[in-house]
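Rotation project, supervised by the postdoc (A.L.). Task for the rotation student: set up a whole-complex structure prediction and record inputs and outputs verbatim in this book. Inputs entered:
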Amino acid sequence: MKLTKERIVDAGMATFAEVGYHGLSMRRVAERLGAHAGSLYYHVRGKDELLALMADRVCRQAYDAGTAALAGLPPEATWHDAIEAQAEALRRTIQQHPGGAVLLADSPRTLSSGALSLMERLLQTLLDAGVPAAHCVVAADTLLSHVTGFVLQERGNSPAPPVTAEVHADLRTRFPLIIERMPRPSRDDMFQRSVRLLCAGFATLVEE
Amino acid sequence: MKLTKERIVDAGMATFAEVGYHGLSMRRVAERLGAHAGSLYYHVRGKDELLALMADRVCRQAYDAGTAALAGLPPEATWHDAIEAQAEALRRTIQQHPGGAVLLADSPRTLSSGALSLMERLLQTLLDAGVPAAHCVVAADTLLSHVTGFVLQERGNSPAPPVTAEVHADLRTRFPLIIERMPRPSRDDMFQRSVRLLCAGFATLVEE
DNA sequence: AAACTTTTCCAACACCGTTCGAAATACGTG
DNA sequence: CACGTATTTCGAACGGTGTTGGAAAAGTTT
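Outputs recorded:
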């Protein structure tokens, strides 16, 4: 079958899901398509462009997931709910691809039309909520970078660290607050609450 | 001169600053030390460990920068100022290393003692501010992941994208909010305001 | 069918992380 | 000092990577 930018990105996403970020190579992507690595370069400038295209696709998926989530919202939902729905959709979408956060992190977000779509809708939500235009960009940017950062951190912590008892005791004396006194809610819970925290901040900007 | 874990991390940081994340190789690090690549493996398990050590060093630097910033605060400073100072110190430190955000992103933050130090102090600040312990971890985590995400986004935008007039016109019709109506404050300004936004969210948690 | 364009192959290049046995160096002991 | 041992470095090698460029194939137009 003929080689296409679209099909290459497809294969890229599939390979990415299988072998992760570090295992993604042009040769493996080509192999999945029954082609040779060099052939990809006729359709794609290099690995960088492929990664950028993949990142854009993730943004697009997140956008679609967001529209679905927004559509499922009850009519009495507030703008808090709308923002929460978009944030959660973005997080879930990134999470679906192992290492997907790094993917987004490694390619410039601006001028990727998928990323711009996400931004645009978020801005609209905030404007509708009554946040003055002058503050909207800051607010939307804050939310987006927060979600990215959160998922990034999440992935780093996910392989449960093998903590020996000895290490734990050491940590307890050196970082008493973290280890001892702090309740550790689930990541899902923490994410929801952190987004609500942001919304509370946004609310202080709303002009009646 | 003798090879050491410490000296290897030094050379790693220097090489990293010169050639960036993608250009960092064991061979280049070794070359800077007048040694061969294989020799590094006697002191370091592999490139992963080197990167983790480097990430930890960045956290340490950020911690020290934070203490300096806190010390320079006037006595009438509020807890908002204290959090802002720590966030700004972290951002500046990460920024000093090109691609430093990706460095932090690619290594697990937990169990890195530098990262834990950052977290611990942030928790203390929030506790002193009156945020109940049950919410502190969420708040601190939110702030840290926000700063990371922000710098990440910042770096992606930094190489000013070559926007042709044609592309700009296309974007204007497709994303009117972003391109047209939104004022674009400086990144410094945006960062400060986003942190204040977070603080406003934290303030709603404070029990009198 | 011939001329031409688009697409794919394939071999090669330079570089990468990592391993391993052999050298070399340092060091404590007789 | 000399000798044996432990620590450290070398240097070559292996399999893998992104990328290139000319030859070959496939498709299209005249």
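Student's summary: Residues 58 and 146 of chain B are 17 Å apart (CA to CA).
Supervisor addendum: Chain B touches chain A through 63 residues (CB under 8 Å).
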